Amino acid sequence: MQVQTLVSWWDEQPDIDFDPVYQRKGHLWSKPQKQDLVDTVLNGFDIPKLYLADFTILDSALNEKKKKYAVIDGKQRLIALFGFFAGDFTLAKRFTFYEDPTLSLGGLSYEDLTSNYPKIARRYNNYALAMMSVVTDDEAKISELFLRLNTSKPLSGAEIRNAMLGDVPRLIRQIVEHPFWSKIGFSTLRGQDKNAAAKLLLLEHAGSAVDTKKKQLDELVTKANALSASEVSISDGDSNNLDEYAFDDDTDTEGVVGDLIEASAETENTNVERSAMRVLDTLSRLAPLFVTKDDVLRQAAQIPVVYWLGRELNPAQRQQFRPFLVNFNNQREKNRKLPLGDPSRDPELLDYEILTRTSNDQASIEGRYKIMRRRLFEFLK
Length: 381
Description:
By secondary structure, the protein is mainly alpha-helical. It folds into two domains: 4-149, no CATH class; 157-380, no CATH class. The chain is 46% helix and 5% strand. It contains 16 helices and six strands. The chain has helices at 6-11, 31-42, 75-86, 110-116, 118-125, 139-149, 157-163, 167-176, 192-206, 214-227, 272-286, 303-310, 315-318, 321-337, 347-356, 362-380, and strands at 4-5, 16-17, 50-54, 69-73, 128-129, 131-134. The strands form two sheets. Strands 2-4-3-6 form a four-stranded mixed β-sheet. The longest helix has 19 residues, at 362-380. The protein starts with a strand and ends with a helix. The model is unreliable at 225-270 (pLDDT under 50).
């Protein structure tokens, strides 16, 4: 793009989409990282090029928010640079202005610079950003560019999958829009919610416990096009009524459940969109049971087991599900605090803790499910 000053891009901020679908979540940089970038600008050093999808040239269908630009690469840098304008943070206490090290500028805000050191503030305003304009109507090309630019950056598996093409990334994004995810108690800054949603989709699509490691989640993305030939929309068609799979109160709960729920085996041959529809259906049943940022959902590793157990319950049993989880977590915590060798330690809960160490293994998911399921139906009695 034609070179523009930093302050001119600050003026353009309302016309920039910072959250297109392929982007990682914002505000990941720490305060010191943001301060270091401002230091770089004020001391006249170069920063890498930024990339924007440019919708001023092409009226693209990708421009869902009807803005002039969408960030492809450089989101964290723009957030930091704009945050200094907005007064979100100040210069680091150790900041040194190399042209005149005698100046004590550490801890000053942008407003302080404007009032007391206008020449230095103008240096910030007039810093020239090297901005690349990307003009295309092809989402595949933008996603490919994003992945290539971020190849050497520490993106999480969920962030990389989110930028991939195909049905699965789109379905995962739809799943994490469900109100259930407002109930989880763990951080989502690096796409942990998308990662958990991908695991639920994988389990539902397999119809039984499987490994939910990065390899399997990535394969779900890459193979989905071959697995889903039909064009079934998540919002269309009849969702399966999972109540028909619910266990009655007098169910024999001591039997070994080979693949968790035999009734779900039919999902193995359905397309991925129907599997996603099942996930949304189950989450709709579970969401009302929990409170916002629920402490019983504070561990991402527990979500697949909680989901798989909760999906089989009838309405009356579901009302006791959260009280059971509270009780179960309390029992685990008390058991962990007992000293080694204490005869009152619960061996089954010790086994459960060992299984949590390999939470993405099929055996771990099955083992934790069986332990939790047996104790749930004891609780219901």
